[in-house]
Amino acid sequence: MGSVLALSSGPGHQNWPFSTDPAPSRWDTRDGRLPNPGSFHSLHRSCKDVFPQQIEGVKMIVNKTLSSFFKVSHTLHLSAVSPSYYRFHVEHLQSDDYSKDKDAPALIGEMDSSGSLNAHSLLHLTERVRARAVFQTQQAQFVTWQFETEYRGNDFTAAVTVANPDILRESVILVAHFLQSVSSGLVLGGELVYHRGRAEEGGILTLAGQYSRPNWVATLNAGKGGAHASYYHRANKQIQVGVEFEASTRTQETTASFGYQMELPEANMVFRGMVNSRCIIGGVLEKRLTPLPATLIMGAFVNHRGDKLQVGLGVNVG
């Protein structure tokens, strides 16, 4: 059930298979109306984008644009810690008009060398109604199949997700989201997760709030499962910082993390670093190799408590 409960936006990092929503804007009030708050999955995204993504081993990614709305990529990952793999990724946008829109209707699929499949579709049924479908397999077994319908009003967003429905096992997970813009900077809402199976049945309610200003965003999720708070601040055009606090009542663990991002446009470089209360320190450097269409990625993470070192090198071409 863990892979499906990742739908919940409670404590812990988001595990939405494909991030399709750009960071929502709160400042467009030219007509006097409140802005749409965006998706529930995007509440903590501004802060999370500051933190570096762990890299281990050697990874090479080759991207190829076949047309303005059809793209493919090949990923080869060699590792001494985890199994090495090859992954093929294909992405098809609905039309050329959406080619530069991160929230565009799309069909996305990934398959790796073990036979695991990750497929996602995003469709705009109307101007306000969007539908998503996600299918994930682990080799020959289905692990996730979920369907979501989202309605975006002028100043609110409501969504319902059905995950892993199984008539034979009499199990299902239902997730309901609602966000309401109270002012140009304040958003309030909540999430209700209901799960039912032969052995258990229950629900978890999580309340959420976000307050935004032009240079910073503060977000809080709190409920029976724990709490997740984040703060994002843009110091200037080059430096961004983020702070996260996560507490889980199920695992009885709390984690505090600090991350920052530094951009050096003159050197075509971006550096992201982090440190958390588990004594983990890490950083990732991305260097654009102009005039070549390639990016060099170097990263290292040290776990002082576990006495472990993780080093990675990657190249992104295209």
TrEMBL record:
Residues 1-40 are annotated as: Disordered. CDD domains: Porin3_Tom40. GO terms for biological process: protein import into mitochondrial matrix. It is found in: Mitochondrion outer membrane. Keywords: Membrane, Mitochondrion, Mitochondrion outer membrane, Protein transport, Transmembrane, Transmembrane beta strand, Transport. One of its GO terms (molecular function) is protein transmembrane transporter activity. GO terms for cellular component: mitochondrial outer membrane. Transmembrane segments: none annotated. Its main location: mitochondrion. It is a multi-pass membrane protein. Belongs to the Tom40 family. This is Translocase of outer mitochondrial membrane 40 like.
